[in-house]
Amino acid sequence: MVAPSDEFVMLIVSSPSGAGKTTLCNRLREEFGDIRFSVSHTTRLARPNEVDGREYHFVSDAEFERMVRERAFAEWAAVHDRRYGTSKREIDAARAGARGVLFDIDYQGARQIKAHYPDAVGVFVLPPSLEELERRLRGRGTESEEATVRRLAAAKREIAHYGLFDYVVVNDELERAYERLRSVVVAERCRRARHAQRCEELLTQTLETTRPGRALGEE
């Protein structure tokens, strides 16, 4: 029996706020049901359409600090005056029952995940321009003017870390950007290293072939 291929993909998707990362990740989750979404912990308040345990695990500062002390996070960082973290339990649960895990995290978290899990694959989603990014942020209608200005100021700092990532997807048009993102998943599952053991075991197998001129089942 040939060993199964290791097609478990740890996929990190990051972007400046407003570049469309969450929309793209939701599309990916709809198509690839065998990829588990890593639900991060955060100290920020839930938005009206968010559900605890679905978009995030919403916790207090005290609870977050307790998890930090207990080394419960694979990564955590402060973003826009709030803290976000990925628990190790999320990764363990994905390995136990899925073919991949999807991280919707910022560049700080991406750096930590890739440091602990070198095989993790990073994708950075770019807006087509800073002007378009501003239009999208203001179009949300969920942020104060102060928060919008702060996110725009942070965008360039976040883009400066594109070198941490393996792929860059420009979200100039949603369908085109999604096709690029899904292609990363398909390509990564076909990566040679993930199938090396299967290839090597096939090379050691011996076939029982019939002698020339004799049909199968012929006495």
Summarize this entry quickly.
With 219 residues, this protein is α/β, with parallel strands linked by helices.
Describe the protein's architecture and organization.
The chain is of the alpha/beta class and 219 residues long. The protein is 43% helix and 20% strand. A five-stranded parallel beta sheet has the order 2-7-1-8-9, sandwiched between helices. A four-stranded mixed beta sheet has the order 4-3-6-5. Strand 5 (73-79) and strand 6 form a beta hairpin. Helix 5 (130-140) packs antiparallel against helix 6 (145-159). The longest helix has 16 residues, at 174-189. It is globular. The two termini are 28 Å apart.
Q: Any key phrases for this structure?
A:
219 residues, alpha/beta, five-stranded parallel β-sheet, four-stranded mixed β-sheet, 8 helices, 9 strands
